[in-house]
Amino acid sequence: MHPMLNIAVKAARRAGTIINRASNNLDVLRVERKNHNDFVSEVDRAAEQAITEVLLDAYPNHAILGEEGGAQGDSEYQWIIDPLDGTTNFLHSFPQYAVSIALSHNGTITQGVIYDPVHNDLFTASRGAGAFLNDRRIRVSKRIQLADSLIGTGFPYSDFAHLETYMSMFKDLLQRTAGLRRPGSAALDLAYVACGRFDGFWELGLKPWDMAAGVLMVQEAGGLVSDVEGNEHFLETGHVVAGTPRVFGQLLQALQPHLTDSLRY
């Protein structure tokens, strides 16, 4: 395992310990509302602080981009952190949330960790070295037809600017696929594409920390990722499409008729 990935795993597991401990005392957690349907708890902040401490202890000159703490430092290396992707699920004891940590080197994602503390599932990826689930090599599924595919997605939850567009996409794809699922954690959704549990995924309006690690995971597992126009601006736009090599193209094509100018880069 790459030394930087190893440090990220250590950080993710430390955050997972904090999250698991807090899951037993949800009724006493302090929770704030950042926006409509967008919550942050003291667990999010504690987990991010723990991750940041582990990373900066090993690499004190690296920069940090965290969901809760924002951007810190200036370096060619930047850690992109979501300490608890799926906070709403966590607050309702719905067991679908994860820690997501990625490393960007000069703008390229090179390392990624997604840790599911509920099931103790550790997804890891290093650029050029493949993707793994609990040390077992993973690949995207072999499905080739959108009609046979299980597709993950994420509903708009805070910013509803693209709600009507999204709903038209959802209605269309509901009739073109074997099924749509919205578990509520984009990081895990992308990890599920990487290991073949989903055959594809799309979502609008994500943040870099929601998808950075997951995007690398899919790519290293043999899948394809783009923005909704088929380009590589997903980290800038927040709009992402991912899937197996064959399903990806069909999913992207199905989304094209619904695109509005506001979704274009």
UniProtKB/TrEMBL annotation:
Pfam families attached to this UniProt entry: Inositol_P (PF00459)
Keywords: Hydrolase, Magnesium, Metal-binding
InterPro entries with a match to the protein in the record: IMPase, Inositol_monoP_metal-BS, Inositol_monophosphatase-like, Inositol_monophosphatase_CS, Inositol_monophosphatase_SuhB
Residues reported to bind Mg(2+): 67, 82, 84-85, 210
EC number: 3.1.3.25
GO MF annotations, alphabetized: inositol monophosphate 1-phosphatase activity; metal ion binding
Catalytic reactions of this protein: a myo-inositol phosphate + H2O = myo-inositol + phosphate
Listed SUPFAM superfamilies: Carbohydrate phosphatase
GO biological process: inositol metabolic process; phosphatidylinositol phosphate biosynthetic process; signal transduction
Alphabetized Gene3D superfamilies for the sequence: 3.40.190.80, Fructose-1,6-Bisphosphatase, subunit A, domain 1 (3.30.540.10)
Top enzyme category: hydrolase
Cofactors named for this entry: Mg(2+)
Stretches of the chain forming a coiled coil according to its record: none
Family assignment from sequence similarity: Belongs to the inositol monophosphatase superfamily.
Protein's name in the database: Inositol-1-monophosphatase
Organism of derivation: Chitinivorax tropicus
